[in-house]
């Protein structure tokens, strides 16, 4: 019987050990987004998973203040991993884990231009996990994650930022704030949905800390419906507000034709207008469950904090800063 030479056995064994080593390396290699806690999987779209639901709040967190409100796209320190993390990633480093193709890292136009807004909207709406991670970090007060994602958070907020005196004017932006009714569906564990729904009592005011993605009323929520649904009425006309600038909801259809999405800025304040709608027993995809509905109205849109600081009188600002006069920083539009 013919036998293989010893060198052949050595080669075969080497190949086996090499394959095992490669497999082990793949298993232990750290994730590029290890700073984001695992996302619970489910049978429905992750864009409407129950993780969007948190106890109702009315105040901005300190982490949001440090990593979002105080972030500057011009004078930020270089990001350093922690703990605690310091500084911020730049825009290219921020999006590379989600959009590694260099073409996605080219940004046309100036901030606030239609071309740039369209690029930002096309990026965050793709199913890369970018938008999901941004919202999760905001809701979880994940400072390490927000310092990595701050440039993209800033860019998306700029899409929603308006100078009130220039809305629908020739020298204003080529889009206008959304006004009307839209829908929001959240997926909540069946044994918790009643508890969460009870938080939204008539007259309760609260803010959703992260970006809120909704759908236009036409066509309903499907396939983004959940078992805790919201009908949201936005009747605030930002052009009539007394503040010079404001963050306001925008219909993404303006930038992406055919889109049914309306995006609300973080820290938008809502009031529960109606909580007495009957619970519906709905069967979908061979699954029967209770669906709760609440009617909300927008009562306050967030104002950029640099604008708020600029509105404070110099004397008052000196008192607040302990006698040190500090001019408000304004971002270029």
Automatic annotation (TrEMBL):
Q: Can you tell which superkingdom this protein's organism belongs to?
A: Eukaryota
Basic residues: bias regions: 320-333
Which Gene3D superfamilies does its entry note? Toxin ADP-ribosyltransferase, Chain A, domain 1
Q: Where is this region: Disordered?
A: 307-333
Its protein name is: Uncharacterized protein
Which species does this protein come from? Effrenium voratum
């Amino acid at each position: 019987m013919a036998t293989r030479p010893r060198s052949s056995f050595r080669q075969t064994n080497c190949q086996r050990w090499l394959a095992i080593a490669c497999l082990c390396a793949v298993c232990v290699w750290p994730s590029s987004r290890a700073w984001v806690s695992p996302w619970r999987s489910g049978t429905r779209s992750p864009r409407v998973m129950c993780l969007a639901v948190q106890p109702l709040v009315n105040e901005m967190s300190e982490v949001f203040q440090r990593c979002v409100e105080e972030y500057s796209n011009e004078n930020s320190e270089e990001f350093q991993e922690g703990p605690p993390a310091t500084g911020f990633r730049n825009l290219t480093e921020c999006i590379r884990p989600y959009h590694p193709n260099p073409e996605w890292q080219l940004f046309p136009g100036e901030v606030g231009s239609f071309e740039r807004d369209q690029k930002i909207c096309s990026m965050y709406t793709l199913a890369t996990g970018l938008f999901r991670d941004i919202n999760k970090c905001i809701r979880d007060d994940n400072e390490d994650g927000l310092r990595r994602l701050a440039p993209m958070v800033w860019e998306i907020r700029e899409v929603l930022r308006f100078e009130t005196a220039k809305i629908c004017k020739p020298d204003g932006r080529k889009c206008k704030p959304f006004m009307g009714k839209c829908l929001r569906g959240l997926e909540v564990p069946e044994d918790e949905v009643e508890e969460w729904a009870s938080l939204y009592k008539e007259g309760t005011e609260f803010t959703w800390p992260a970006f809120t993605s909704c759908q236009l009323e036409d066509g309903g929520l499907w396939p983004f419906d959940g078992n805790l649904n919201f009908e949201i009425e936005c009747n605030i006309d930002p052009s009539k507000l007394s503040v010079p600038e404001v963050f306001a909801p925008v219909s993404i259809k303006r930038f992406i034709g055919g889109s049914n999405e309306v995006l609300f800025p973080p820290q938008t304040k809502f009031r529960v207008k109606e909580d007495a709608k009957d619970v519906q027993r709905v069967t979908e995809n061979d699954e029967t469950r209770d669906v709760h509905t609440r009617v909300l109205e927008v009562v306050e849109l967030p104002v950029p904090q640099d604008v708020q600081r600029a509105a404070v009188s110099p004397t008052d600002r000196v008192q607040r800063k302990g006698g040190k006069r500090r001019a408000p920083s304004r971002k270029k539009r």
